[in-house]
Amino acid sequence: MATLVNRYVIRHLTGSKANQVEEFDYKKYNELTFGRAATNVVRFDPERDSAVSREHGKIVREPGKPFSFTLVDNNSRNGIFVNKSRIAGSAPIQPGDEIQLGQGGPVFQFDLNPRPAELMMSTRVVDIPVSIQPTKEMSLAETVAASGDNDMAIPHKVGLGKQTVERMMMTERRKTSKSMVLGVAGLLVIVSGLAYAFKDELKPKIQRIEVHHHDSTRIIEPAKDGLTAEQIAAENTSKVVFIEFGYKLVHTTGDDIYHEYMPIKLSDGRVVNKAVYIETAPGKIEPLLGLKRNVAVGKPIAMAGASGTGFVVSPQGHIMTNRHVAAAWNSYYSFPQDAFPGILLVQGAKGWEISDQPVQEFRWVPGETQFFGKKPMSGKIIDGVNTYMDVTFNKNEQRFPAQGKPVVSPKHDVALIKIDLAESLAPVKLRDADKTIAVGQPITVMGYPGISPDVFVGEYSGDFANRNAQIVKVPDVTVTPGNIGKILRGQSAGKAAAYYSEFGDYYQLTANATGSGNSGGPVFDKDGNAIGIFSASTSREDATRITFAIPIKYGLELMGRRQVVE
């Protein structure tokens, strides 16, 4: 009975995809193209696999010839090697052959699943070299003599000759060797038993991960030095969540707080509304705030339509994120476009007067406001509240509202929110790596950058009372590998430091496929532990971009404990 092949199998042995296994539908592809171009079936990293050409070559299934394959070199710059021998133009190959793309380039093994019986590798016969002879057993013979017609054979009395002594010595050597062999064998049994008993401690618990696609299943092999970014993503995708939120600033009376605007008549007769600001101290400016019911013209101190990332840290539904996501009023405010240039009120001899100097854009934190109206505040009379905060899991359309007020750090960009679900959640693994962190270590960032294209799902309603079709945005996580680029240390309170950063305690990352919306996402180490919380980025016009993460130790402090995983 002929074997029915389901999939091509490409086992990557070296290169950027080392320890990964890719499988492709056997019926769908008559040929597998490979190279660095995105159009190839088997794609290699454009940067790290530099020995590979854009359209390096292909594996072609010969029509009419079952299980016959030809490897074709598309005139690549560095050539193709099959089982370490370079081919010229093309060459036949079979399952199990190793293919290398260029001298020193990536190596992969070509195979089929299931492999046909007629293509199974034959059993190797191990030959014994002629110089090695079979072991001979040596024995001692008794020397006897027959005495005439006597019924008994009486041995002759002989002395210990040279040959007899040699035979006796050989026998003793054999006894000694046998004792040594038995001793070594016993020791091996003891060591094997100990190794089996402690196998979990001696062997890292890294297992193969299966990733299922529509028409194929890929098996990701464990990397030699930790996990690959693909393995980390497969393990944590369901634990990284999309957060949508909005907030407003409110008074203790419950009324909304507005930024006052003043009508100004221009020289051409038009009247425009200008935002008003107040100088609370020399060089310090704040928006002029008032209650909604008392402000004739103004705009609310509020924000909507913002998004960020978070990750599950407890089975009970606690989610870690940034403070500027969970309690955005404690971070810099995004003024509307018409807020600048504004009108400045300064304290003069006759009270508050309009300054000739217009107010240009500046930074202001609503939660740290010192004045309300034209008077300094006494006590806390304003606060921020989230108008909504919804949590959505990856590739899911159901929004889960956050419950209660967020728990925020008073000094770091870290916060905790909570959602209520009927089921228990699987949290990410957390590890305080501050003592072992080093520049150059590999990291993986996961999150929902706003610049990434949105994904939407259209569904018909199954609700009898509402038959309208729904178009819902579905989050799809982005995975970004990178490295620790620099370690920034802030100055400890009450201590002098010869070397510190005014920026604060951060890990500077080399992970550029991130941006607004990634805030609050996890930063994983090579073992799949979350060691940081993505927080901020900065860029210049020359396209230089740097990103930053908060050490996870500040999140652990917020959880009321210092460490979760050693």
Automatic annotation (TrEMBL):
Pfam families in UniProt: FHA, Trypsin_2
Organism expressing this protein natively: Spirosoma arboris
SMART domains reported in the protein's UniProt record: FHA
Keywords for this protein: Membrane, Transmembrane, Transmembrane helix
Protein name: FHA domain-containing protein
Annotated transmembrane regions: 179-198
Lineage, opening ranks: Bacteria, Pseudomonadati, Bacteroidota, Cytophagia, Cytophagales
Superkingdom of origin: Bacteria
UniProt cross-references to InterPro entries, sorted A to Z: FHA_dom, Peptidase_S1_PA, Peptidase_S1_PA_chymotrypsin, SMAD_FHA_dom_sf
